[in-house]
Amino acid sequence: MSALLRRIAWHWRYDEKRELWIGWWTLVVFYNLYGLLFFVVARTQPPPKPSLEPSEIVQWFDDRHYGLLFGYAIVFIVGGATAIMNATLAYTMRRMSVSRAFAYSYLVIYALATLPGMLIMGVACTVGAMRPDRDPELMSWLYDFAFLSFEGTMGVFLIGSLVWMVAVLLDRNRVFPKWFGYLNLCNALTEVVVAPAWIFKRGAFAWDGAIAWWINMAVFVTYTAVFLTLLRRMILREDFGSGPLPDLPR
Amino acid sequence: MTNAANTQPRPRFVPGQPDMWAFVLFEALVFTAYFVVYVVRRTQSPELFLESQAHLDLRVGVFHTLVLLASSWSVARCVQAARERSFRTALTNAFLTLLLGFVFLVSKVLEWAAKIEEGFGFTSDEFFSFYYFLTAIHFLHLLIGFGVLAICVHQLWSPARRSQETIETCATYWHTIDFLWVLIFALLYVMR
Amino acid sequence: MNAGFEKRLSVVLLALSAITLSQLGVGSLEGHAALRPNATITSSAIVIALIKVRIILREFMEVRHAPVLLCRLTDSWVVLAGVGLLGSYFVGMAIARG
Q1: Residue of B46, B59, B179 with shortest CB distance to C57
Q2: B128 at A interface, C-beta within 8 A
Q3: B79 chain-C contacts, CB cut-off 8 A
Q4: What is the mean pLDDT of chain C?
Q5: Using an 8 Å Cβ cutoff, are B158 and B41 in contact?
Q6: B41:A203 CB<8 A
Q7: A189/B22 CB distance under 8 A
Q8: Average pLDDT for residues B113-140, to the nearest whole number?
Q9: Helices A216-237 and A81-95: angle between axes, nearest 10 degrees
Q10: For chain B, is the Cβ count within 10 Å smaller at the N or the C terminus?
Q11: Min Cα separation C21/chain B (Å)
């Protein structure tokens, strides 16, 4: 344990890439924490059915009363970490040979994305959980508001993925492999697929549907795991120059 | 016609960027997942699906398939022509591919319009939800395909460019539109 | 253009088109008035589609000339799709009946 602490202390003082590593570890910890909080603590994911009756919705909030309040309280506290995460990803675009506009657009888009991607649902769910004796129709409203804002507003992520895709494909510094650019396109397209969630209350295209949620989530998880791995390789290869990144020694 | 190049076995090569192949395989997997969901949902309400499917015209589906098959043929010819440095032939084939893609686009939109006119929309019933979903997501890939073909034409146009790898990469993407449609055709129009 | 290759591509297109046209027969085979699912038509539709897909992969997309890994990957996907689609059809039908 002390060996580990010594290593961390050494890196803190001497590693010129320490900010990048702080960024990377923030991403890894945050995504894991996010998964834990949404799936296990608050249990808002996988999402419940859109077709529930108001009385069932009240029951849903009731079953998750403490999970929602504590889970999202933690989400709100650590939510600021997304700033570090987005900055780290934007950094990769700064390292590319493409215009800095890509990095800046990505930053703006993903800064906005924290609202539908995390905060609005958190607020709606905690509002619902705070007064369990609220009118069931109001609880129903909060329920729809939470899940539609979370599942249905994929436009932000779609454009963000496309920005990253174009940057990767145009980049001559080989920061990321071209196939990652194409994977961004896959991610973007699956976001489009979520759009019907606004229309359907049951079936494969509802917000909890096989297509709108399950397959979409499978693609998103794959995409996230991939970019975390590629980001780590990028940081290892980083030479703080402005030309092509060297490969990792074999 | 025989020449020395024909008698020697060609060394194995990956057409275009291997990266594009990774994309093709991944998209194929995602579409397969969509298809499986469709088939499963279909087996749970076979009569409904059959009754709605009857409103689709198999001949239109066949026409669409033939058009895309021909477009795959023309883009393959384009790649081969570029390989042999017959760039004018390659360009002609690239434009032919664009034209065939456009024929598909118009025909598809007309088919959608006809169905909507008959009263079958996205939310009419489960079959039509899948019909519009699968054809629309395919259509989106087609639209991207036009952009990809434009890149191909751009490459072929000027002697300063003409990267064989880029041309082959574009062709690989275009073929995906074709083979995905072949599967969609079988699932939406043919299967009972 | 290399005449051999050009001819091959055209033959492939003709074959694929012929297979597609033959599927027109399904329209007249079983009237929709019957409104009953037909496993034979469905399985053959899926299998024929995958055969067409494999031909497109190997001939138009030149997987024939590709390194073995790519051949294996594309074939694996074709098999996976076949198993997935046919499997979900038959299992789904069994569940619906039972």
Answers
A1: B179
A2: no
A3: 62
A4: 88
A5: no
A6: yes
A7: no
A8: 95
A9: 60
A10: N
A11: 7
Task: Give yes or no for B17 touching A (CB within 8 A).
Answer: yes
Report residue B10's pLDDT band, with 50, 70 and 90 as the boundaries. Answer: low
Domain-wise residue ranges, chain C: 3-97
Nearest-CB residue to B41 (from A185, A196, A204): A204
Interchain contact A84–B (C-beta under 8 A)? no
Mean pLDDT across chain B: 92
pLDDT band at B1 (very low <50, low <70, confident <90, very high): very low
pTM tops 0.95, yes or no? no
Contact B6 C4 (CB under 8 A): yes
- Comparing CB atoms, the residue among B19, B123, B141 nearest residue A179 is B19
What is the mean predicted confidence (pLDDT) over A198-216? Answer: 92
ipTM score of the complex?
A: 0.91
Mean pLDDT of B105-111: 97
Distances, alpha carbon A207 to alpha carbons A51, A61, A67, A144, A216, in Å: 10, 18, 21, 10, 11
Alpha-carbon gap, residue B99 to B177, rounded angstroms: 15
CATH T-level topology, domain B16-37+45-190 = Four Helix Bundle (Hemerythrin (Met), subunit A) (1.20.120)
